Amino acid sequence: MENASGDNHAISAVTRAAVLGAGSWGTTVASLLSARVPTLVWARREETAAEINRAHSNLSYLPGLTLPAALQATSSLAAAVQDADVIFVGVPSHGFREVVRELAPFVGMRTPLLSLSKGVEAVTNARMTQILHEELPGRPIGVVTGPNLAREIMTGHPAATVVALHDHGLATAIQDVLTGPSLLVYRNPDVVGCEVAGAMKNVIAVACGMAEGLGFGDNTRATIITRGLAELSRLGEQLGGQQSTFAGLAGMGDLVATCISPQSRNRTVGFLLGQGRTLAEILAEMHMVAEGVKSCRPLLATAAGFGIEMPICEQVVAVCHEGRTAREAGIELLARKVGVE
Amino acid sequence: MENASGDNHAISAVTRAAVLGAGSWGTTVASLLSARVPTLVWARREETAAEINRAHSNLSYLPGLTLPAALQATSSLAAAVQDADVIFVGVPSHGFREVVRELAPFVGMRTPLLSLSKGVEAVTNARMTQILHEELPGRPIGVVTGPNLAREIMTGHPAATVVALHDHGLATAIQDVLTGPSLLVYRNPDVVGCEVAGAMKNVIAVACGMAEGLGFGDNTRATIITRGLAELSRLGEQLGGQQSTFAGLAGMGDLVATCISPQSRNRTVGFLLGQGRTLAEILAEMHMVAEGVKSCRPLLATAAGFGIEMPICEQVVAVCHEGRTAREAGIELLARKVGVE
Lengths: 341, 341
What we know:
The structure is a homodimer. Chain A is α/β, with parallel strands linked by helices. Helices cover 51% and strands 10% of the residues of chain A. Chain A has helices at residues 24-34, 46-55, 77-81, 93-103, 128-135, 150-155, 168-178, 191-213, 218-238, 243-246, 249-260, 265-274, 279-285, 291-305, 311-321, 326-334; strands at residues 17-20, 39-42, 72-74, 86-89, 113-115, 141-145, 159-164, 183-188. The longest helix of chain A has 23 residues, at 191-213. The first copy, chain A, is globular. At the A-B interface, α6, β7, β8, α9 and α10 of A face α6, β7, β8, α9 and α10 of B.
C-alpha cells in the first residue's frame, strides 16, 4: 500500500516497515521486521545510522550483538517513512511529540502508527497514542508491548509480545510480520489498557528495585508486583482498559519481566535509590532513559483526578521527587491498614 | 474457647494455637503465632521436637535461624491440639490424610483447621481442604497462603499473606493473631480459589525453572508466569474460585514469588530438569518435597475432566513423568498457534 493511497481498507500485509528510534527496543523491533520485509530504522544521530549500515551493530544500546545485514538505517525522518506501510515509533516519551510533529508531513493518511514507547508525557499527562492521535489525526494507531527485554529477544530466547490495535485485519498483518521462530505474537484490541499497563509497570519496577536495594527478598518483590498490578488495573480500568489485558502479557507479563530482570533500567534506578543513592547521582551515570521516574508523577496526578489510590506509585513519586528515602517509603507502605484483598 | 465446647459461635480471638508439621513453613507459622499466643508445633520426629524445645532451632529446615524461645514443640498429636482453639496443618500432601485421620479423635467439633499445604492428593485428586472436610466433617476449614518463602518471613522481610475462610469473624481473629511488624495479613472468603492457586503455582514454578535451566531469560520466565496464571485461573474458576483471587496475593503473588525465588524447591527441580538431569537423580538428592512434581498429574487430570487446556502443566507432566526432555517441551509450547490473548 502506498502511504498516500486513497485506499479505505486497512493493509492486509506489511510490505515495508519503518522504525523510529534506534534505542535498544527500536533496534530490536527493526531487526525482527527486517527478517521478513525491507525495514528502515531512523536514528537521531547520523553516526548511529552509519554504524548500523556499515558495522551491523549498535554499540551504545545493544553492545556485543550483531544486527541483521538486511537492516538499513537512516537519520532522515522523511526517508525512513517514505515507502513504509507501517511505522513503529520507539522514541522516549520526552522526545516523542517533537519527533512525531516533525514526521507528520511525510505520513500518508492511512499509514498505521504503533507506539513502542512506555511512558507518559510530562505536563500534559498524555499517553503516546494520545500524542499520535493529536499530531497525526485519522491514522490507525496502536501499540506493541509485552514482556520484551530487548537483548533477550535479540538473542532468540523464547518470548511473546502483543500487538494492540482496534482494527482486526491490520493487527493480523502486523502479527504476521512480527512473528518469528522464538517470538509468539498475540493480538489485543484494548489499546488503552495495553498502553496504561506499559507506562505503569515502569513505576512499579522502580518500587521493586527499591525493595531489593533495601535488602528485601522475593516475598517482598512478589507482593509489590501483585499490589502494583492492582494499582495499574484500577487506573487502567478507569481509563477504559480491560481487566483481561492487565492479567495478560501486556499487563502482568511485562510487569513481571521488568520487575525481575537485572536488565531493567527502571528496576536498576530503584535498586540504587534503595541503596541510598540520590536520583541526581544515578541519572548522571545512566545514558538510557528510566521512564518510570518521569511517568510516576503524571500517572499519580491522573489517578488522583479520578479519586483512585495508588500507594506504591505515591511512594515512588515521594522518593524520586520529594526527598523521601526508600526506607521511609517502605515503612509508610507497611503501616497501611489492610483487610479483604 | 475449649475444643469440645458447645459454643455455636466462631471464636472471636485465638488464645492458643497448634501447628502440625515442623517443616520450613510450619515452623515459620508457629514462630509467628508464638509471638502472640502460646503455640505448640507438632513434629513427626521426636528429635526435631526436642531440638526446637532445647536449642530453639530446626537445622533440617531452617538452618542458621533462631526460633522464638516461646515456641514449644511436641511429637504427640494429642498433646499438640489438646487446648488449641485453632489448628494449622502443614504436612506435605502425601502424608496429609494419614496425619489428619490420626488427629481426628482429638479435635473438638468447632475447632477451625487451616491448611498450610499446597498440593493435591495423588489418586483421589483431592485438595487438602477436601481431605479436612472428609476426615473432620463439620469444622470450619480454610487455608493460609500467599507469597511466603519461609526463610524470608523468619528473617523479617516485609511480606503479605492471605487467610482464606468463609467465616468473616473467624478470619478476622486469625488475621489478628498472624499480623506482625513485617507481615500484612489479608482475608479472602474464596477458600477454593486460594487453594487451587497454591497447588497450581508449584507446577508452573517447575516449568519456570525448566526454562531457566535451558538458559532462557526473564522474558521467557515472565511469559510462563503469565500464561501459567491463565491456566491456573481457568481451572480455579471452573472449581468455583474467583478471578480476583487469582489476580491477588494468593494467586499471582504466590506464583511470582515461587517462580523467581532461588529458594523455591519446585523451581529448583525444574531448573535441574532443564539442565538435563533426570527426576530420579534430582529427587534422590533433595530431602524436601517438591509438591509440583506430584500435583501436576492430578491437576491435569482434573482439568481434562472439565475439558480445560493447560499446555504448560501438560508439558510439566510429560517431562516429570513421561520421559520428555525439557527442550522438547519448550519446542512443543512454542509451536502452539496463538491469536487473541
